[in-house]
């Protein structure tokens, strides 16, 4: 039986302790009215890696088009999964609309892309015409949106490119780069990332630290394999994994395999509020606390949206920075 005594209360008690009078809107403020930051830094005695990270710094510096190519100034995207590549190429300012439901732009891409108008699943042609795209980036999963735009006469003279973001993040990054005439820049950026990943692996002696990945979803506690996005970046860095986690697929933790979650260090993540509630209960349970890494305070919390929903060079840099900051860290103190 898992012990589930006051786990959520423990979570609240372990946030940054700040006191001030609350205004009518419920926001904590100083006596002069300034907003007080209440960034959560721990959950159930586990430190959050890069708590309060500034996503305004996610996107990289702008890149130049390939020699002899003119630059694309106005881009419309029908699949939010393609935005990461544009962010990593420094083209966020050129994205004028996203043909997708509100809230579908990943938060880790920062405020610039978060402020781009989202036009819904079936946008009004006039809204797309207002965006005046020179290029429309689409994917096989969202080609119906592209078809609707074309049939509605919203595209005008805009050229289109279809990129499959499920082919592997480096391949899809190259494909997006080719669509915006930045093949050379893409190769440079991938080479820079690979060089830094290898350097981090050497400096941190990553091959001698076995790292476990455990993800809490609303429905299960998952022991992750090698196929998730964060796990792929760890492989590129050379981080070792426990023997039971060297196959691609995640498995559900049960009575027979529970200790397969243990390692020198465990990175946990929570999918949404319900995943957080489940994970908080487990992290406070006797069964979990009896394992090696929890005993040594070698359990850390990483951003689920970045490590599991992210898929691109911008997200890869965030994962790499997490590894730099935490591979030799703990939740002690």
From TrEMBL:
<dbReference type="GO" id="GO:1901678">
    <property type="term" value="P:iron coordination entity transport"/>
</dbReference>
<comment type="similarity">
    <text>Belongs to the bacterial solute-binding protein 8 family.</text>
</comment>
<dbReference type="GO" id="GO:0030288">
    <property type="term" value="C:outer membrane-bounded periplasmic space"/>
</dbReference>
<keyword id="KW-0813">Transport</keyword>
<dbReference type="InterPro" id="IPR002491">
    <property type="entry name" value="ABC_transptr_periplasmic_BD"/>
</dbReference>
<feature type="domain" description="Fe/B12 periplasmic-binding">
    <location>
        <begin position="74"/>
        <end position="331"/>
    </location>
</feature>
<dbReference type="InterPro" id="IPR051313">
    <property type="entry name" value="Bact_iron-sidero_bind"/>
</dbReference>
<dbReference type="Pfam" id="PF01497">
    <property type="entry name" value="Peripla_BP_2"/>
</dbReference>
<keyword id="KW-0732">Signal</keyword>
<feature type="signal peptide">
    <location>
        <begin position="1"/>
        <end position="22"/>
    </location>
</feature>
<protein>
    <submittedName>
        <fullName>ABC transporter substrate-binding protein</fullName>
    </submittedName>
</protein>
